[in-house]
Design brief:
The protein is α/β, with parallel strands linked by helices. The protein has a domain at about 5-45 and about 90-185: Glycerol-3-phosphate (1)-acyltransferase, CATH 3.40.1130. Helix content is about 30%, strand content about 20%. The protein has helices at about 35-40, 60-65, 75-90, 115-125, 135-140, 170-185; strands at about 5-10, 25, 45-50, 70, 95-100, 130-135, 150-155. The chain is globular, with a radius of gyration of 16 Å.
């Protein structure tokens, strides 16, 4: 899909990822192309937190379920937590979980506030957070558009964040630290090699 749309990907600071280590990967979300960029650049096995409604999509929903992605009901916090816990138990050994912490794609290109679901999971399971910043995907395919423009999408890996010193009471401090890291690597004017 990347090749036919003349979109390339690149990764910066890949050495910060420890192979075989499980992470809660937290990323900003600018475009549907974020998914392709992350799958092709990170080089680690991961699953997604996905809204439960996607299960209803014929074949696609089943495929995502069969590959052990984690479906959450965003309308019911208690059920969402239960789904997350069950989903984590189903993960293959060493697999990570990818979370778009904004909850949806940014409509204006700015990084929105982060929701806490992935962070609470990281704290409760003592899994480190891997902050990832995606640059350039909004230029390739902005939210609401069907027109794909050739370009380069960059994934920038931040330093992993140890969650062992955080509790559910201090989750906001963890969210703030992660968001600052992602924003520090964010370049809304990123054009990459193709322009």
């Amino acid at each position: 899909m990347l090749a036919v749309s003349f979109v390339r990907t690149e990764i910066k600071n890949k050495a910060r990822i420890t192979k075989g280590r499980s992470y809660i990967i937290i990323s900003n979300h600018q475009s549907h192309y974020d998914i392709l960029a992350l799958v092709t650049t990170l080089g680690v096995q991961f699953r997604w937190f996905i809204k439960r409604e996607i299960l209803k999509v014929p074949l696609f929903g089943y495929g995502l379920y069969a590959s052990r992605n984690i479906f959450i009901d965003r309308s019911d916090t208690a059920r969402a937590i239960e789904s997350i816990n069950k989903g984590i138990e189903r993960l293959p050994t060493g697999a990570s979980v990818m979370v778009f912490a904004e909850g949806t794609r940014s409509s204006d290109g700015r990084i929105q506030e982060f929701k806490k679901g992935g962070f609470v999971t990281a704290i409760m399971r003592k899994i480190p957070i891997l902050p990832v910043t995606v640059n350039g995907s909004r230029r390739v395919l902005p939210k609401g558009s069907l027109v794909v423009k050739p370009g380069t999408i960059q994934a920038v890996i931040g330093d992993p964040i140890d969650t062992s010193g955080y509790t559910t009471e201090t989750v906001q401090a963890l969210i703030d630290k992660t968001r600052r890291t992602i924003m520090a690597n964010f370049d809304p004017e990123y054009r990459g090699r193709a322009d």
